[in-house]
Amino acid sequence: MVGTGAGPFSYAPAIALFPLAAFVISLVFGRQLPKKGAIPGIFATAASLLFSLWMFATVAGGETYHETLYEWSAGAVTTEVGAEEIAFSFGLLIDPLSALMLVIVSLVAFLVHVFSLGYMNDEGETGLPRYYASLGLFTFSMLAFVYADNLLMAFMFFELVGLCSYLLIGFWFRTKSAPSAAKKAFLVTRFGDYFFLIGVVAIASTFGTVAFAGEESFVVAAETAIEDGTTLFGFDAQTWVTITGLLVLGGVIGKSAQFPLHTWLPDAMEGPTTVSALIHAATMVAAGVYLVARMFGYYALSPTALSIIAFVGGFTALFAATMGVVKDDIKQVLAYSTISQYGYMMLGMGVGGYVAGVFHLMNHAFFKALLFLGSGAVIVLMHHEQDMWKMGGLKDKAPITYYTFLAGALALAGIVPFSGFWSKDEVLFDALIVGLEEPVILAAYAMGLLAVFFTGFYTFRMVFLTFHGEPRTETAEDPHGVGWSIKAPLVVLGLLAALVGFVNLAPIAKVAGMDITFLEYWLDGEYGYVEGLTYHHYHEMVAFEEGYIGSETTTMLLSAGLSLGLALAGAFAAHTLYNVPEPKRHTTKLGGAYTVLRNNYYQDEYQVWLAEGLTLPLARTADLFDRSVIDGAVDGVSGASLFGSSWVKRIQTGLVTNYAALIVAGFIALLLGLGLYGGWF
Amino acid sequence: MAAYQLPQWAALAPALLLALTGLVLFLIDSISPRSTDRTLLAGTAAVGALASLAVAVWFTAAGVGTPTVDGGEGVIEIFDGQFVVDQLALYFMIVVTIVTALIVVASYDYLAGHTYQAEYYSLVVLAATGMATVAAANSLVTIFIALELTSLPSYALVAILKDNRGSVEAGLKYFLIGALSSAIFVYGISLVYGATGVLQLDSIAEVIADGGADGFGGLLGLGILMLLGGIAFKTASVPFHFWAPEAYEGAPAPISAFLSSASKAAGFVIAFRVFNVAFPLGEIGNVIGFDWTVAFVVLAIVTMTVGNFAAATQENVKRMLAYSSIGHAGYALIGLAGLSADGGELVMGAALMHLLVYGFMNTGAFLFVALAEHWGVGRTFEDYNGLSSQAPVACGAMAVFLFSLAGIPPFGGFFSKYFLFTGALQAATANTAMLAVAAALVVNSALSLYYYSRLVKALWIEDPPATRDRLGQPTGLYAAIVVAAVMTIVILPGFGPVAEAATGAAEALVN
């Protein structure tokens, strides 16, 4: 049921082009515009949102869209599977997954733009045209990435997303830390993207196609190759799929801040908080996990790749959550929570829980955008103070901020019935049932489960320190007010964080036997679908066995109860320790562990050592080799040439008799040489 | 094609128009012998050259020389085949008239205040007539006569700055070497005649094919090598190149441009025609013991190397260009070195293209030197320092010429050189010595970038001396330079037709 160019889908390119237009307008006319570029940005993202909703409705009506718009290069190749030509193109793929993501991205981008009115304009920031232009480009890149129909186009916009995050993280480029954080984000993600690029090239040269969907896609080609037992580049097909899949995963790990490439993300807090909201909820970081979902069919072919995804995800979830426990800066806590939550999504994807992963991606987009914007509101309230120990008691002074933030916190901690609970529970349930058969996954599940406790703890530690107790500074006594442009997005997102979980109430559906798992139906093609990109299809492809403790329902209830219990335990621990009028720094009692955690497990240190202790000497050696051997050879050649030149020049004596003699001599030499060669003598 | 049939001799119209222009210039000169009406004289010469160019282009477009099976007019023979007008002839007439037009326009300013205006222009046009005739000549006799018609005015033109010692000395040297080379050439003709008994090129081939020259192999071979010597003189190929650096340096710069572009092209057209038509590969090998491509392989490598190596450390810009011109003759010789019994039209087509592109870029470069001489800034690289700050347009054009000469994309010179390279590699399947030629082409191109970019650096990067006066903007010189630069650039998008014409001309000759 792939639609043709007619109908609503012919307007699909506009979704990405609106923010691009806003980018151009803000850049060119930003200085002259009343709100320095905010207005075109808001209108453009609103238009994108409307069009996205229209696409969403159309997909719900049973139509999908897969169309090549522009082919920029095509040619003959020799590939491993025998395809003889390859084409690189720009094309759109609008299926349930991308339609859903388009709505999420454009909605969050729209709310961030509105929020920026209060956060940036009202606070008298300078350089706003640059800010709004970057936001526009960022939104454009992400939207185009979302509905890219092939891996190369996805890669290009993936890179643009990286560039835009660099621009925005370094927005306050006059400070010392922001440019450094921007560079770090750029370099670390670039390190991952390097593998991604190799992966793209490997896939293109293996299968002769980079399309995500359809009979011509690399997923189908890989499936055929595995069935036929083809040997690809000396490996059997499945191993090669694992290798290429893991190469692409390099980009995902960089962008989605998974261990060990997560180090850029906490530093990225140097950007404006609105940017953090956009990066964490809907664009940059989401791009990585979305890519896994987009080419899930490919990963589904390789149990090894899936296990690695799951294990990395589970490990990252726990690892980041523990670091979140000791942070004092409100944005730092959120940063580590982001890393941890994307770990859950990876865990979900890795155990074949495509729906669970996407579900958590969606919920997280809303509650994390909410929490960041909420913390932005807190920062405005606190006159740009971010240390939670200097806050306290904001609950009564800013009720809207408090209640919306609380909704987000409950969702993040995974407390029923807020959205985060449903999706996190589904991820953990999927991990558990696979884990009962696969020990590696069980370990990943255990780490994920343990992380729930820490999540509950650090989330509520943050809430209590910020909003409860007595105000600990004068600023907290008398906070700055916030306007409608800050409150309105918070309310919208607060409602979403509370309610959006109801689109997929899997546990209740199981227990009560009701058909209310709408998201699963959506992704399974109950409405519109593109052949080969449905949950059903993926589920058949994933080679994991599933086991249960007792019956399926028992297992599910057990899993849900465990995770909810741990979350509540974490929250309760935080309550006892911090929900008091004068909270103390209890985490310092952890002793050595506290130091390790404060220093983020020395991740930055070892990466700096890798750069300075290993790469730099290596680069110096290479430089020395270049200067001595290579340059020496080149200089030698040019020296010899110039010496030869001065010698050749000397033949021209200026005496015409010499010339005549040389001409005759040269001619005779030629004559003798050729005569000998021709056998005249 | 045409509504009415022109008489046969009209096919020589491009050459005849040039001759007529020369006569008109004489007429003007005899009516008013002391006339220095530069506009009239230069204008007449330019109109004549352009008219000749227009006719040559028209003939090409109308299909003269295109085989009748392809819908063309076929090759036109005149005077029982003493002259032929085919695609090759028209192609070279176009090259020659373009260069003539450019240098005539440029000379308008260069010759301001010069005594012998009418003589200068009529000599240029007569030399051009000789070159256009050479392109169509099809017998050793007509070739020799046309060649002398080209050479004699050239000697006078090199020495036309009578008060300039360099110019006079260069003219004399050029004449002496030219006389020696002509002697060798004409001796070669007599030997070939002795061996075959005929002078017309296609008849020579017939005699050789019929075995009429068997037993005279050595004699014929010696004759062929002597013809080669005469041609090497005209194309300034090693070892007959000794006249070139001094003649180019001493001559007025537009004449240097004329000699190094048009006169060289005339030499090449003889080489292409004589060797392909009169001494077909394969058959000639049986008679004289080797294929003449061997000689061209040697000449090409030696010429490229000597030209570029000698150019590398020159301090005088004009002399550097003179040596670079020798190097380019080596590149064009690849077109003959790469031929084989069953093909090679691609590599020869590439050589033809290179000569056309070279006609623009080399002429332009010498005209820039003419402009510098007009300004009186001096002759060395150092004297050219920082000219771009005072004359950005001309210096921009010069950078285009130099990069194109070095073979840097996206300029015309890159493509012709690229085709030469791929052509040489293709020819290497039949003749492995072509690999050495291709390697020499690459090495020498790399070396040439060194000295061309030295000049660009002087123009654009070095600081100008503080004492330089304001520079004028002579209209004619500027116009010629800008046209040449624009053509060097736009010839790239227009390369399709050029490549087609060149390959067509080469195909017609080789097969």
Whole-Å distance between the termini of chain A?
A: 85 Å
Name the biggest interface: A-B, 29 and 35 residues
Number of helices of chain B: 19
Category from helices, strands and their pairing of chain A:
mainly alpha
What is the chains' assembly state? Answer: heterodimer
Output the structural class of chain B.
mainly alpha
Give the overall pLDDT of chain A as a whole number.
Answer: 86
- Helix/strand order of chain B, N-terminal first: HHEEHHHHHHHHHHHHHHHHH
The major sheet of chain B is characterized as: 2 strands, antiparallel
Helix count, DSSP H or I runs of 4 or more residues of chain A: 28
**Helical amount of chain B:** over 70%
What is the typical, i.e. mean, pLDDT of chain B?
88
Helix content class of chain A: 55-70%
Pfam family, one (chain B): Proton_antipo_M
Domain NADH:quinone oxidoreductase/Mrp antiporter transmembrane (chain B): 137-439
Transmembrane segments (chain B): 6-28, 40-61, 88-108, 120-137, 143-162, 174-195, 215-233, 254-275, 287-309, 321-341, 347-372, 393-412, 432-452, 477-495
Membrane topology (chain B): Multi-pass membrane protein
Textual characterization of the structure:
Chain A: Residues 85-132 form the NADH-Ubiquinone oxidoreductase (complex I) chain 5 N-terminal domain. Chain A: Residues 148-435 form the NADH:quinone oxidoreductase/Mrp antiporter transmembrane domain. Chain A: Keywords: Membrane, Transmembrane, Transmembrane helix. The complex is a heterodimer of chains A (681) and B (511). Chain A has 681 residues and is mainly α. Helix content of chain A is 70%, strand content 4%. Among the domains of chain A are: 303-584, no CATH class; 605-678. Chain A has 28 helices and five strands. Chain B has a domain at 293-511. Helix content of chain B is 72%, strand content 1%. The two termini of chain B are 25 Å apart. The A-B interface holds A 638, 641-642, 644-646, 648-649, 651-652, 654, 656, 659-660, 662-667, 670-671, 673-675, 677-680 and B 172-173, 176-177, 180-181, 184, 217-218, 221-222, 225, 229, 238-240, 242-243, 245-246, 288-290, 294-295, 298, 306, 309-314, 447, 450.
